[in-house]
Design goal:
- This protein has 326 residues and is mainly α.
- 39% of the residues lie in helices and 9% in strands.
- A hairpin with a 2-residue loop joins β6 and β7.
- It is extended and about 65 Å long.
- The N terminus is likely disordered.
C-alpha cells in the first residue's frame, strides 16, 4: 500500500539549515508555535534536542535555546514527530488499500486459517471449504467467497475490498449510517452493473465477522457502579438509588434509554488475533527469542524487574508465547 506523509503544517526543511541562519530561526519558531497549539501541556512542549530526547516538558524559550545550541535529536529528525502533532501517514486514496491477494491473506490471518502450505501468494488456491464447518469457519469461507466477487464485471477489483475501503472512509470522516446508505444508493444508480450491498445494514453483515468483540455495559451517570455480572439485571443503582433508565421521545413515542454506556474491549481476543496473524506472531515472541545477551538495556525484557518476574515464575518464563502486560 503506497503511503503519503501529510506535510500540512509540518515543515521540516528548516532542520537541515545552518542553526545560525535567519531561515533556521524562522522555521524553528514557526514549529514551536505550531507545537504549542497541538501538543502542549500547561504552556510547555516536549524538547526534542540531543540532550533532552523528548523526555521532559520545557518552556518555549528553553526549547528554542536547546535547539539553537545542541540541535535536534537525529533519530527524531527522520521519524514521525509524534510528540509535536505530526499525523500518521494516510493511505494514498488513488490506489486501493488492499488487493485481492492481500485481502485473502488478511482473512487467513484474522481467522487463523493457515494450512501447511499457505503463503501470501497462493492462499486463495487452497480456500475450498471442508465439511462440518464451525461458525467461525463458515464466516471465513463466506468472506473468502465475497472477496473473490468482482465489484462489477471486468473491473478486477473485489466487492469486499471496496466495502472495506468505504468503511475506512466512514470511520475517518464520521459518516452516519444513513449517509452511508445514501452513498450506496447513488453509486448503484450511476453504476447499475455494480455488485453493491443495498444499504449499510447489509454492508455491516458482510464485514462484521472481521470485527473484534466489544461489550456494552450500562453505567451509573455518577460513575458509582457498572451493571455487570451479578448486577446486570438491576433497575436502580445500588449506591445512589437512581433509575438505570431515562425517558426519551422518538418519533412521537416515549422509549427508555440508559443514562450512560461503557464500551469494553476484551483484551483476550485481541491478543489471540496478534498470535493468529503471521505478520505479528513473530513480534509477539521476540522478547523471548531475541533476548539481549550483553546486559544492555534495549527492551523491557532486559530490565531487572522483568528478570525478577522470570525468577519468581520460572514456568511462566519458560513459555515463549507468554508476555508481561504493564
Amino acid at each position: 500500500m503506497a503511503l503519503q506523509v501529510s506535510s500540512v503544517g509540518m515543515d521540516k526543511e528548516w532542520v537541515f539549515l545552518d542553526r545560525r541562519s535567519d531561515e533556521y530561526i524562522a522555521g524553528l519558531r514557526a514549529f514551536i508555535n505550531k507545537s504549542l497549539l497541538v501538543s502542549s501541556f500547561e504552556g510547555k512542549i516536549k524538547c526534542l534536542c540531543i540532550e533532552c530526547y523528548n523526555c521532559g516538558w520545557r518552556t518555549l524559550k528553553e526549547v528554542e535555546d536547546h535547539l539553537k545550541v545542541d540541535g535536534m535529536w537525529p533519530d527524531y529528525v527522520h521519524s514521525r514527530w509524534k510528540w509535536h502533532g505530526e499525523p500518521w501517514p494516510m493511505p494514498n486514496m488513488g490506489e486501493p488499500p488492499l488487493g485481492v491477494a492481500n485481502t485473502t491473506a488478511m482473512l487467513h490471518d484474522a481467522f487463523g486459517m493457515h494450512g501447511p502450505h499457505n503463503n501470501d501468494d497462493n492462499v486463495e488456491d487452497q480456500d475450498v471449504p471442508p465439511p462440518n464447518l464451525t461458525p467461525a469457519a463458515e464466516n471465513f469461507y463466506r468472506l473468502i467467497k465475497e472477496g473473490q466477487k468482482e465489484l462489477y464485471p471486468g473491473c478486477g477489483r473485489s466487492k469486499l475490498d471496496f466495502i472495506l475501503e468505504l468503511y475506512q472512509l466512514k470511520a475517518k470522516n464520521s459518516w452516519s449510517n444513513v449517509s452511508f446508505t445514501c452513498l450506496l444508493d447513488m453509486l448503484k444508480n450511476w453504476f447499475s452493473e455494480s455488485n453493491l450491498p443495498a444499504n449499510f445494514y447489509q454492508s455491516k453483515k458482510l464485514v462484521t465477522a472481521l470485527a473484534l468483540p466489544c461489550e456494552k455495559i450500562d453505567v451509573c451517570p455518577n460513575d458509582c457502579m457498572l451493571f455487570w455480572k451479578l448486577d446486570k439485571n438491576l433497575r436502580n443503582y445500588k449506591h445512589c438509588g437512581a433509575s438505570r433508565y431515562r425517558s426519551k421521545i422518538v418519533s412521537g413515542r416515549r422509549i427508555r434509554v440508559v443514562h450512560k454506556v461503557l464500551h469494553y474491549f476484551p483484551i483476550g481476543p485481541r491478543l489471540q488475533r496478534l498470535y493468529m496473524s503471521r505478520h505479528t506472531a513473530e513480534s509477539m515472541v521476540w522478547h523471548s527469542e531475541e533476548r539481549n545477551k550483553y546486559e544492555v538495556l534495549r527492551h523491557p525484557v532486559d530490565s531487572p524487574a522483568w528478570k525478577h518476574l522470570d525468577n519468581m515464575y520460572p514456568s511462566f518464563a519458560f513459555e515463549h508465547e507468554m508476555f508481561v502486560l504493564a
